[in-house]
Amino acid sequence: MKLIFSDEFDYEGKPDPTKWVHETGNDWHNNEVQYYTDNERNAFVKDGKLHIVALNEEMGTRKHTSARLTT
Residue 61 — left, alpha, or beta (φ > 0 → left; ψ -120 to 50 → alpha)? Predict the structure, then answer.
């Protein structure tokens, strides 16, 4: 097998933008209650792990924020 993607999370801070893309907004047509941001409070790397955190904070018409990432 050939490895085509890898991130070892051997850094801290925002997810590596050369590997991770933030999808922002709230127009995903599946009635989700959060607004997706590119804020480091919602998605960050620490202690060798990718953390995605939902927060109780208003953004637009939504009462929660979170992160949505693709590779």
Answer: alpha
CA-closest candidate to residue 34, choices 11, 7, 3, 56 = 56
In a domain, 14, yes or no: no
| pTM of the full structure | 0.88
Domain count, the chain: 1
DSSP codes joined into one string, the chain:
----------S-BS--TTT-EE--BS--SS---EEE---TTTEEEETTEEEE--B---BTTBSEEE--EE-
State the residue range of the domain holding 60.
21-70
Each residue's pLDDT tens digit, 19-30? 999 999 988 778
